[in-house]
Amino acid sequence: MSTGQLPRWVDLGLIPLINLVAAFFVSGLVVILIGESPVEAVQVLIWGSLGFGEGIGFTLFYATNFIFTGLAVAVAFHAGLFNIGGEGQAYIGGLGVAAACLLLDHIVPWWVTMPFAVAGAALMGAAWAFIPGYLQATRGSHVVITTIMFNFIAASLMVYLLVNVIGEAGSMQPETRTFVEGGRLPFLTDIIPGVDFGTAPVNFSLILALLACIGVWLLIWRTRLGYEIRSYGANPDAAVYAGINPVRTIVITMMISGGLAGMMAINEVMGSQHRLLIEFVTGYGFVGIAVALMGRAHPVGIVLAAILFGMLYQGGAELSFEIPAITRDMIVVIQGLVILFAGALEYMFRPTLVRLFASRRAPAAAAG
Amino acid sequence: MKKLFAMSAAASVMLACASALAADIQPAVLYDLGGKFDKSFNEAAHSGAQRFLEDTGIEYRDFELQNDSQREQALRNFARRGMNPIVAIGFSQANAVEKVAAEYPDTQFAIVDMVVDLPNVRSIVFKEHEGSYIVGMLAAMASETGKVGFVGGMDIPLIRKFACGYKQGVLAVNADAEVFQNMTGTTGAAWNDPVKGGELAKSQFDRGADVVYHAAGATGIGVLQAAADAGKLGIGVDSNQNGLHPGSVLSSMIKRVDVAVYQAFDDAKNDNWTSGFEVLGLAEGGVDWALDENNAALVTEEMKAAVAQAKNQIISGEIVVHDYMSDQNCPF
């Protein structure tokens, strides 16, 4: 383990910052290559994501999605499992949300519908993650393979259901009917006095997401189950020797992970679109992996990383709006570079920093 | 070079302003998730806007979506900046157009492939089933085995509409013909998977098909490639794709999204804007089949006569091509 070699602030603050700067530096070179000013691009990106109420609203809206999917990946990480099926789990979670909203929206207000929608989303997501988890635990089928395959099964199932079963007849778009008031979460603009997020769809789900962060922190670091999850992740053999049931741990972890991913659907389906439609996940599940990596699988880190990716999403949209030469594919390149430096190349600068701090510490130690 | 171009563009804009009073429109296009260079549906919209730029010198703005939440955001961004008219491409934009058009009643909106009933929205839908019927007839006449194929993109009602019209056309020529249907996938990737498109086409060839029609966006590039490689015939869609493999593309079912976009811009420029409901079928030239030097050798006089007759009969109402969307069902 490399932790302990560096002061905590370097590990958690400086290294992510250096990675981020490096990513933006390379992105800047790409922007220069296509003949635009990188300074202007950064200005537009930051102004677009944080410069005005609606921009902040959109940033937080995207961040809500990333918090849920990031937490999902992080919980599985702690048990040494790599759940890359957040995409499918969120998609199926939408089914639970839609079921609650379609059944209840005419009858009760939103705050009665919400618990059912949350439970529906979590249950459906958990059920979708249960099968890969169970197969991993009892048959050794690797979750990386099974969860990604389950993404495709989820997509097929949802298209089938939306086109043939629950979709609105006569509509080109495979989608359910639009929910009425009782199936819509309130926008934060409307419930927090004095805050103006314009028309941004940031909604009550953000509060649910932050509650989920606290829940995950309590689960992983303050409960017996969390201890089992962490022990199993650190060393499965030792954990089994210590009497931890591996099947139970894997299955429960995967279900919690899937449930969190499923809850992302609340933000999109009940919070923003107010209907279940095809392809509403559009990659948030996969970005969750980057968010969890960058946030070091810790809720605080995940919130910060989710906001960063929210900024990239919202600022990126403004960027391609303001500077048409920077297309959406360029935005994907910039996002990809951030993921590359923050996730995959995370250890690129570490050895240098370790040496740097070791050489600084060594004379001090000698003097002491 | 770039400066020179900018200057000449500025000069032409100034000239345009001086010559025409109503020319100061700021048109905008919002593409669907497929992106503007999908070699098909969205690209047709792009080429319409591009042609308008070349003809009039009037610049337009466009935007490519990354996710569903950006639909409303992009429309509002356009409207707020005084863009007018704003053309939204694709049925998925309907909800967003409905919301934003109500917020900006003085801005003209147009939506392709869906109907939004507001006083400032022009809804343009196409009768894809009619065009598909015609290419279905061509396929059945060109086929020697009596077996033809269809490769769709994503399995959604719109694509079933293509498939159903096609099948009806095939059966109208040869009641014993077999039509193989495959959809490429269930995610958005199904519009952009030429490898899988090619594999599906090959499997249909293995089962005896010798003509295959695609309605699959960029996936269809692989379908047409596979047809050319196997010495069979492909049929293109949306844009005229006859030139992709001259001699191997029997025809293309053209859907004039480009004309719809051009027309919307042009009407706004000439103060001729009309809102409401436009259905473009064979009669209106909204859908058609493509005949050019690339496929002239493949289409016999007999085929031309037969489709010309069918076209007249469809226009006159003598032949009714079944619209899948009317009852979510294909009776063939």
From TrEMBL, chain A:
InterPro entries: ABC_transp_permease. It is found in: Cell membrane. Keywords: Cell membrane, Membrane, Transmembrane, Transmembrane helix. The keyword Nuclease does not apply. One of its GO terms (molecular function) is transmembrane transporter activity. GO terms for cellular component: plasma membrane. It holds the Pfam family BPD_transp_2. It is a multi-pass membrane protein. The chain crosses the membrane at residues 12-35, 55-78, 90-108, 114-131, 143-163, 202-221, 276-294, 300-319, 331-349. This is ABC transporter permease. It comes from Roseibium aquae.
Automatic annotation (TrEMBL), chain B:
It is found in: Cell membrane. Residues 29-322 form the ABC transporter substrate-binding protein PnrA-like domain. Residues 1-22 form the signal peptide. It is a lipid-anchor. Keywords: Cell membrane, Lipoprotein, Membrane, Signal. The keyword Signal applies. InterPro entries: BMP_lipoprotein, Peripla_BP_I, PnrA-like. The keyword Cell membrane applies. GO terms for cellular component: plasma membrane. Coiled coil: none annotated. PROSITE patterns: PROKAR_LIPOPROTEIN (PS51257). Belongs to the BMP lipoprotein family. This is BMP family ABC transporter substrate-binding protein. It comes from Roseibium aquae. The lineage of its organism: Bacteria, Pseudomonadati, Pseudomonadota, Alphaproteobacteria, Hyphomicrobiales.
